[in-house]
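step 3/5: co-fold with zinc ion
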Amino acid sequence: MKKIGKVLLACVAIYLLLIISVPSVIDKIKNPTVLKPPYKVLDSAQKIYNSLPFIADMHCDALLWSRDLLDRKDYGHVDIPRMLEANVSIQAFTIVTKSPKGQNFSANTGDSDNITTLMIAQGQSVKSWSSLTERALIQAKNLHKFEKKSKGKFRVIKSKSDLKKYLVDAELYSNITAGFLGVEGAHALDGKLENIAVLFDAGVRMMSPTHFFDNKLGGSAHGVSKAGLTDFGKKVIEEMQSKDMIVDVAHASPKVIDAILEMTTKPIVSSHTGVKGTCDNVRNLSDKHIKGIAHSGGLISIAMFKQAVCDTDVKATAIAIKYVIDLVGSDFVALGSDFDGSVNASVDITGLPLIVEELLKLEVSEIDIQKVMGNNVKRLLLETLPE
Ligand SMILES: [Zn+2]
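step 4/5: write C-alpha coordinates
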Protein backbone atom coordinates (compact mmCIF):
# COMPACT_ATOMS: atom_id res chain seq x y z
CA MET A 1 0.00 0.00 0.00
CA LYS A 2 2.86 2.34 0.92
CA LYS A 3 4.45 1.74 -2.47
CA ILE A 4 1.21 2.58 -4.30
CA GLY A 5 0.94 5.75 -2.24
CA LYS A 6 4.45 6.79 -3.22
CA VAL A 7 3.79 6.10 -6.92
CA LEU A 8 0.56 8.11 -6.74
CA LEU A 9 2.38 10.97 -5.05
CA ALA A 10 5.11 10.89 -7.69
CA CYS A 11 2.45 10.95 -10.45
CA VAL A 12 0.76 14.00 -8.87
CA ALA A 13 4.15 15.72 -8.50
CA ILE A 14 5.03 15.04 -12.14
CA TYR A 15 1.59 16.29 -13.27
CA LEU A 16 1.97 19.50 -11.24
CA LEU A 17 5.47 20.01 -12.64
CA LEU A 18 4.12 19.53 -16.17
CA ILE A 19 1.29 22.03 -15.53
CA ILE A 20 3.85 24.61 -14.41
CA SER A 21 6.52 24.10 -17.06
CA VAL A 22 5.02 22.61 -20.24
CA PRO A 23 2.55 25.36 -21.27
CA SER A 24 5.24 28.08 -21.40
CA VAL A 25 7.62 25.79 -23.29
CA ILE A 26 4.90 25.08 -25.91
CA ASP A 27 4.05 28.81 -26.00
CA LYS A 28 7.68 29.76 -26.72
CA ILE A 29 8.03 27.17 -29.47
CA LYS A 30 4.68 28.00 -31.11
CA ASN A 31 4.86 31.80 -31.07
CA PRO A 32 8.31 33.01 -32.20
CA THR A 33 9.06 36.48 -33.63
CA VAL A 34 11.17 37.09 -36.76
CA LEU A 35 12.49 40.51 -35.67
CA LYS A 36 13.02 40.83 -31.91
CA PRO A 37 12.27 44.01 -29.92
CA PRO A 38 13.32 46.74 -29.24
CA TYR A 39 12.57 48.10 -32.71
CA LYS A 40 14.35 50.86 -34.58
CA VAL A 41 11.80 53.13 -36.23
CA LEU A 42 12.39 56.24 -38.35
CA ASP A 43 11.64 59.42 -36.36
CA SER A 44 9.09 60.59 -38.94
CA ALA A 45 7.14 57.30 -38.68
CA GLN A 46 7.35 57.16 -34.88
CA LYS A 47 6.04 60.74 -34.68
CA ILE A 48 2.99 59.82 -36.75
CA TYR A 49 2.51 56.60 -34.75
CA ASN A 50 2.59 58.56 -31.47
CA SER A 51 -0.08 60.91 -32.81
CA LEU A 52 -2.50 58.15 -33.93
CA PRO A 53 -5.92 58.71 -32.32
CA PHE A 54 -6.81 54.98 -32.07
CA ILE A 55 -4.64 51.89 -32.56
CA ALA A 56 -6.35 48.52 -33.00
CA ASP A 57 -5.69 44.94 -33.95
CA MET A 58 -8.47 42.54 -34.92
CA HIS A 59 -6.90 39.21 -33.98
CA CYS A 60 -4.64 37.55 -31.43
CA ASP A 61 -4.77 34.16 -29.74
CA ALA A 62 -2.89 35.15 -26.56
CA LEU A 63 -5.60 33.61 -24.32
CA LEU A 64 -4.81 30.09 -25.50
CA TRP A 65 -1.46 29.82 -23.74
CA SER A 66 -2.53 30.33 -20.11
CA ARG A 67 0.04 33.14 -19.92
CA ASP A 68 -0.40 35.86 -17.29
CA LEU A 69 -1.21 38.71 -19.65
CA LEU A 70 -0.52 41.27 -16.91
CA ASP A 71 3.07 40.13 -16.81
CA ARG A 72 5.46 41.38 -19.47
CA LYS A 73 7.05 38.40 -21.21
CA ASP A 74 10.09 38.21 -23.46
CA TYR A 75 8.32 35.60 -25.60
CA GLY A 76 5.01 35.46 -27.47
CA HIS A 77 3.62 38.58 -29.10
CA VAL A 78 1.00 40.25 -26.89
CA ASP A 79 0.52 41.09 -23.22
CA ILE A 80 -1.01 44.07 -21.47
CA PRO A 81 2.31 45.79 -20.59
CA ARG A 82 3.39 45.54 -24.23
CA MET A 83 -0.03 46.82 -25.39
CA LEU A 84 0.43 49.83 -23.11
CA GLU A 85 3.97 50.41 -24.40
CA ALA A 86 2.67 50.31 -27.99
CA ASN A 87 -0.19 52.65 -27.07
CA VAL A 88 -2.70 50.10 -28.37
CA SER A 89 -6.32 51.20 -27.90
CA ILE A 90 -8.01 47.84 -28.48
CA GLN A 91 -6.91 44.29 -29.20
CA ALA A 92 -9.26 41.51 -30.28
CA PHE A 93 -8.65 38.42 -28.13
CA THR A 94 -9.86 35.50 -30.20
CA ILE A 95 -10.47 32.11 -28.64
CA VAL A 96 -9.23 28.88 -30.23
CA THR A 97 -10.98 25.70 -29.02
CA LYS A 98 -9.79 22.95 -31.35
CA SER A 99 -6.81 22.49 -33.64
CA PRO A 100 -6.25 19.34 -35.71
CA LYS A 101 -3.01 17.36 -35.42
CA GLY A 102 -0.67 18.05 -38.35
CA GLN A 103 -2.57 21.30 -39.01
CA ASN A 104 -1.94 22.51 -42.56
CA PHE A 105 -3.43 24.98 -45.04
CA SER A 106 -4.75 22.53 -47.63
CA ALA A 107 -6.81 19.73 -46.04
CA ASN A 108 -7.58 18.94 -42.38
CA THR A 109 -10.27 16.82 -40.77
CA GLY A 110 -11.75 17.45 -37.34
CA ASP A 111 -10.93 13.89 -36.22
CA SER A 112 -7.92 14.80 -34.09
CA ASP A 113 -7.16 17.68 -31.74
CA ASN A 114 -4.09 19.28 -30.16
CA ILE A 115 -5.96 21.48 -27.69
CA THR A 116 -7.18 18.55 -25.57
CA THR A 117 -3.57 17.80 -24.59
CA LEU A 118 -2.97 21.51 -23.96
CA MET A 119 -6.04 21.71 -21.67
CA ILE A 120 -4.77 18.70 -19.68
CA ALA A 121 -1.21 20.11 -19.57
CA GLN A 122 -2.61 23.44 -18.34
CA GLY A 123 -4.52 21.69 -15.57
CA GLN A 124 -7.90 22.95 -16.86
CA SER A 125 -11.24 21.49 -15.72
CA VAL A 126 -12.14 17.92 -16.77
CA LYS A 127 -15.18 19.36 -18.60
CA SER A 128 -12.78 21.29 -20.89
CA TRP A 129 -11.18 18.03 -22.01
CA SER A 130 -14.30 17.30 -24.07
CA SER A 131 -16.47 20.46 -24.26
CA LEU A 132 -15.33 23.13 -26.72
CA THR A 133 -17.87 25.59 -25.26
CA GLU A 134 -16.20 25.08 -21.88
CA ARG A 135 -12.78 25.86 -23.39
CA ALA A 136 -14.19 29.10 -24.80
CA LEU A 137 -15.75 30.01 -21.45
CA ILE A 138 -12.45 29.41 -19.60
CA GLN A 139 -10.58 31.76 -21.95
CA ALA A 140 -13.36 34.39 -21.82
CA LYS A 141 -13.29 34.25 -18.01
CA ASN A 142 -9.52 34.63 -18.00
CA LEU A 143 -9.69 37.89 -19.95
CA HIS A 144 -12.14 39.22 -17.37
CA LYS A 145 -9.78 38.11 -14.58
CA PHE A 146 -7.00 40.15 -16.18
CA GLU A 147 -9.39 43.11 -16.35
CA LYS A 148 -10.11 42.83 -12.63
CA LYS A 149 -6.46 42.38 -11.66
CA SER A 150 -5.27 45.24 -13.88
CA LYS A 151 -6.62 47.93 -11.49
CA GLY A 152 -8.24 49.91 -14.29
CA LYS A 153 -5.41 49.63 -16.80
CA PHE A 154 -7.21 47.10 -19.00
CA ARG A 155 -10.88 46.75 -19.76
CA VAL A 156 -13.02 44.36 -21.78
CA ILE A 157 -15.29 46.16 -24.23
CA LYS A 158 -18.71 44.57 -24.76
CA SER A 159 -20.99 47.35 -25.95
CA LYS A 160 -21.17 50.68 -27.71
CA SER A 161 -21.54 52.40 -24.35
CA ASP A 162 -18.43 50.60 -22.98
CA LEU A 163 -16.47 51.83 -25.99
CA LYS A 164 -17.78 55.40 -25.75
CA LYS A 165 -16.88 55.56 -22.06
CA TYR A 166 -13.45 54.11 -22.79
CA LEU A 167 -12.85 56.72 -25.51
CA VAL A 168 -13.64 59.51 -23.03
CA ASP A 169 -11.43 57.95 -20.33
CA ALA A 170 -8.56 57.34 -22.76
CA GLU A 171 -8.46 61.11 -23.35
CA LEU A 172 -8.05 61.66 -19.61
CA TYR A 173 -5.68 58.80 -18.71
CA SER A 174 -3.00 57.80 -21.19
CA ASN A 175 -2.05 54.56 -19.45
CA ILE A 176 -5.11 52.42 -20.25
CA THR A 177 -5.86 49.83 -22.90
CA ALA A 178 -8.68 47.49 -23.87
CA GLY A 179 -9.70 44.27 -25.55
CA PHE A 180 -12.77 42.52 -26.91
CA LEU A 181 -13.52 38.82 -27.26
CA GLY A 182 -13.89 36.73 -30.40
CA VAL A 183 -14.03 33.01 -31.17
CA GLU A 184 -12.23 31.15 -33.97
CA GLY A 185 -14.59 28.50 -35.28
CA ALA A 186 -18.21 28.02 -34.21
CA HIS A 187 -17.55 24.39 -33.32
CA ALA A 188 -17.13 26.22 -30.00
CA LEU A 189 -20.94 26.00 -29.81
CA ASP A 190 -20.69 22.21 -29.30
CA GLY A 191 -23.31 21.98 -32.07
CA LYS A 192 -25.96 23.89 -30.09
CA LEU A 193 -27.58 27.10 -31.33
CA GLU A 194 -28.44 28.08 -27.75
CA ASN A 195 -24.72 28.24 -26.91
CA ILE A 196 -24.50 31.48 -28.95
CA ALA A 197 -26.27 33.14 -26.02
CA VAL A 198 -23.91 31.39 -23.57
CA LEU A 199 -20.85 32.76 -25.39
CA PHE A 200 -22.49 36.18 -25.81
CA ASP A 201 -23.16 36.34 -22.06
CA ALA A 202 -19.50 35.46 -21.48
CA GLY A 203 -18.59 38.59 -23.50
CA VAL A 204 -17.92 37.15 -26.96
CA ARG A 205 -18.69 39.74 -29.65
CA MET A 206 -17.18 38.20 -32.80
CA MET A 207 -17.06 34.63 -34.15
CA SER A 208 -15.99 32.87 -37.32
CA PRO A 209 -18.05 29.93 -38.63
CA THR A 210 -15.09 27.60 -39.24
CA HIS A 211 -11.41 27.34 -38.33
CA PHE A 212 -9.00 24.73 -39.79
CA PHE A 213 -11.54 21.94 -40.44
CA ASP A 214 -15.11 21.58 -41.73
CA ASN A 215 -17.75 21.65 -39.00
CA LYS A 216 -21.55 21.58 -38.56
CA LEU A 217 -21.79 25.12 -40.06
CA GLY A 218 -19.95 24.36 -43.30
CA GLY A 219 -16.58 24.21 -45.04
CA SER A 220 -13.23 25.60 -43.94
CA ALA A 221 -10.73 26.99 -46.47
CA HIS A 222 -8.41 24.32 -45.03
CA GLY A 223 -10.99 21.54 -44.72
CA VAL A 224 -11.71 18.57 -46.92
CA SER A 225 -15.17 19.35 -48.36
CA LYS A 226 -14.69 23.08 -49.27
CA ALA A 227 -18.48 23.09 -48.84
CA GLY A 228 -20.81 26.06 -48.40
CA LEU A 229 -22.93 27.08 -45.44
CA THR A 230 -25.29 24.43 -44.04
CA ASP A 231 -28.81 25.19 -42.81
CA PHE A 232 -27.42 25.11 -39.27
CA GLY A 233 -24.68 27.52 -40.39
CA LYS A 234 -27.30 29.92 -41.75
CA LYS A 235 -29.22 29.78 -38.48
CA VAL A 236 -26.02 30.54 -36.54
CA ILE A 237 -25.23 33.58 -38.73
CA GLU A 238 -28.81 34.86 -38.33
CA GLU A 239 -28.76 34.37 -34.58
CA MET A 240 -25.31 35.99 -34.23
CA GLN A 241 -26.38 39.04 -36.20
CA SER A 242 -29.63 39.35 -34.27
CA LYS A 243 -27.49 39.53 -31.10
CA ASP A 244 -25.04 42.03 -32.68
CA MET A 245 -22.18 39.54 -32.71
CA ILE A 246 -19.75 40.30 -35.55
CA VAL A 247 -19.42 37.57 -38.21
CA ASP A 248 -15.77 36.86 -39.07
CA VAL A 249 -15.09 35.00 -42.35
CA ALA A 250 -11.39 34.27 -41.67
CA HIS A 251 -10.60 30.62 -42.52
CA ALA A 252 -14.04 30.09 -44.15
CA SER A 253 -14.27 28.26 -47.48
CA PRO A 254 -14.96 30.54 -50.51
CA LYS A 255 -18.47 29.05 -50.73
CA VAL A 256 -19.18 29.89 -47.08
CA ILE A 257 -17.99 33.47 -47.69
CA ASP A 258 -20.27 33.69 -50.77
CA ALA A 259 -23.26 32.49 -48.73
CA ILE A 260 -22.56 34.89 -45.83
CA LEU A 261 -22.11 37.85 -48.18
CA GLU A 262 -25.45 36.99 -49.74
CA MET A 263 -27.40 36.75 -46.49
CA THR A 264 -25.66 39.31 -44.23
CA THR A 265 -27.63 42.20 -42.81
CA LYS A 266 -24.59 43.67 -40.99
CA PRO A 267 -20.95 44.55 -41.77
CA ILE A 268 -18.79 41.42 -41.77
CA VAL A 269 -15.04 41.13 -41.23
CA SER A 270 -12.10 38.92 -41.97
CA SER A 271 -10.24 39.31 -38.69
CA HIS A 272 -6.84 38.05 -39.93
CA THR A 273 -6.15 37.45 -43.58
CA GLY A 274 -3.94 38.12 -46.55
CA VAL A 275 -5.10 38.90 -50.08
CA LYS A 276 -4.68 36.76 -53.17
CA GLY A 277 -3.65 39.93 -55.08
CA THR A 278 -0.28 39.97 -53.26
CA CYS A 279 -0.09 36.40 -51.90
CA ASP A 280 -2.15 33.82 -53.75
CA ASN A 281 -3.02 30.93 -51.47
CA VAL A 282 -6.02 29.16 -50.04
CA ARG A 283 -6.20 31.17 -46.79
CA ASN A 284 -6.36 34.56 -48.52
CA LEU A 285 -9.22 36.68 -49.86
CA SER A 286 -10.01 37.06 -53.56
CA ASP A 287 -10.75 40.51 -55.02
CA LYS A 288 -14.42 39.50 -55.25
CA HIS A 289 -14.58 38.75 -51.53
CA ILE A 290 -12.63 41.91 -50.60
CA LYS A 291 -15.20 43.93 -52.56
CA GLY A 292 -18.06 41.99 -50.92
CA ILE A 293 -16.76 42.63 -47.39
CA ALA A 294 -16.19 46.32 -48.19
CA HIS A 295 -19.71 46.50 -49.63
CA SER A 296 -21.07 45.16 -46.32
CA GLY A 297 -19.26 48.02 -44.55
CA GLY A 298 -16.89 45.59 -42.83
CA LEU A 299 -13.14 45.12 -42.52
CA ILE A 300 -10.36 43.26 -44.26
CA SER A 301 -7.78 42.93 -41.46
CA ILE A 302 -4.30 42.12 -42.72
CA ALA A 303 -2.13 39.62 -40.86
CA MET A 304 1.57 39.76 -40.00
CA PHE A 305 3.11 36.39 -40.81
CA LYS A 306 4.52 34.65 -43.85
CA GLN A 307 1.64 32.33 -44.81
CA ALA A 308 -0.72 35.34 -45.04
CA VAL A 309 1.47 37.92 -46.78
CA CYS A 310 4.11 35.71 -48.46
CA ASP A 311 7.07 37.26 -46.66
CA THR A 312 8.41 37.44 -43.12
CA ASP A 313 8.63 41.23 -42.74
CA VAL A 314 6.16 44.03 -41.99
CA LYS A 315 6.74 45.43 -45.49
CA ALA A 316 4.69 42.52 -46.91
CA THR A 317 1.80 43.40 -44.56
CA ALA A 318 2.00 47.05 -45.69
CA ILE A 319 1.94 46.00 -49.35
CA ALA A 320 -1.22 43.91 -48.77
CA ILE A 321 -2.83 46.86 -46.94
CA LYS A 322 -2.01 49.16 -49.88
CA TYR A 323 -3.49 46.59 -52.28
CA VAL A 324 -6.83 46.69 -50.42
CA ILE A 325 -6.78 50.49 -50.29
CA ASP A 326 -6.23 50.62 -54.06
CA LEU A 327 -9.04 48.11 -54.66
CA VAL A 328 -11.83 49.35 -52.36
CA GLY A 329 -10.60 52.54 -50.66
CA SER A 330 -9.13 53.13 -47.22
CA ASP A 331 -12.29 52.71 -45.10
CA PHE A 332 -12.36 48.91 -45.02
CA VAL A 333 -8.82 47.80 -44.14
CA ALA A 334 -7.31 47.21 -40.72
CA LEU A 335 -4.64 45.25 -38.86
CA GLY A 336 -5.32 41.61 -37.97
CA SER A 337 -1.90 40.39 -36.87
CA ASP A 338 -2.71 36.82 -35.70
CA PHE A 339 -0.26 37.46 -32.84
CA ASP A 340 0.19 34.40 -30.62
CA GLY A 341 -1.71 32.32 -33.17
CA SER A 342 1.00 29.66 -33.52
CA VAL A 343 2.72 31.85 -36.12
CA ASN A 344 6.20 33.26 -36.57
CA ALA A 345 5.11 36.93 -36.47
CA SER A 346 7.20 39.56 -38.25
CA VAL A 347 7.36 41.61 -35.00
CA ASP A 348 5.65 41.57 -31.61
CA ILE A 349 2.99 44.16 -30.76
CA THR A 350 5.62 46.78 -29.85
CA GLY A 351 6.74 46.66 -33.50
CA LEU A 352 3.51 48.19 -34.87
CA PRO A 353 5.22 51.56 -35.56
CA LEU A 354 7.18 49.74 -38.29
CA ILE A 355 3.89 49.26 -40.19
CA VAL A 356 3.50 53.04 -40.27
CA GLU A 357 7.06 53.35 -41.56
CA GLU A 358 6.33 50.94 -44.41
CA LEU A 359 2.96 52.54 -45.25
CA LEU A 360 4.72 55.92 -45.52
CA LYS A 361 7.24 54.38 -47.94
CA LEU A 362 4.26 53.24 -50.05
CA GLU A 363 2.96 56.84 -50.00
CA VAL A 364 -0.16 56.05 -48.02
CA SER A 365 -1.52 59.37 -46.66
CA GLU A 366 -1.51 60.19 -42.95
CA ILE A 367 -5.32 60.17 -42.87
CA ASP A 368 -5.41 56.72 -44.45
CA ILE A 369 -2.72 55.50 -42.02
CA GLN A 370 -4.96 56.65 -39.14
CA LYS A 371 -7.85 54.64 -40.60
CA VAL A 372 -5.81 51.48 -41.16
CA MET A 373 -4.07 51.61 -37.78
CA GLY A 374 -7.31 51.82 -35.81
CA ASN A 375 -9.93 54.37 -36.83
CA ASN A 376 -11.68 51.86 -39.09
CA VAL A 377 -11.94 49.36 -36.20
CA LYS A 378 -13.33 52.09 -33.94
CA ARG A 379 -15.91 52.95 -36.60
CA LEU A 380 -16.89 49.30 -37.07
CA LEU A 381 -17.25 48.62 -33.32
CA LEU A 382 -19.30 51.78 -32.79
CA GLU A 383 -21.58 50.61 -35.60
CA THR A 384 -21.88 46.92 -34.75
CA LEU A 385 -21.53 46.32 -31.00
CA PRO A 386 -24.75 46.01 -28.99
CA GLU A 387 -25.97 49.21 -27.30
ZN1 LIG B 1 -6.59 31.89 -37.42
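step 5/5: annotate
The longest strand covers residues 177-184.
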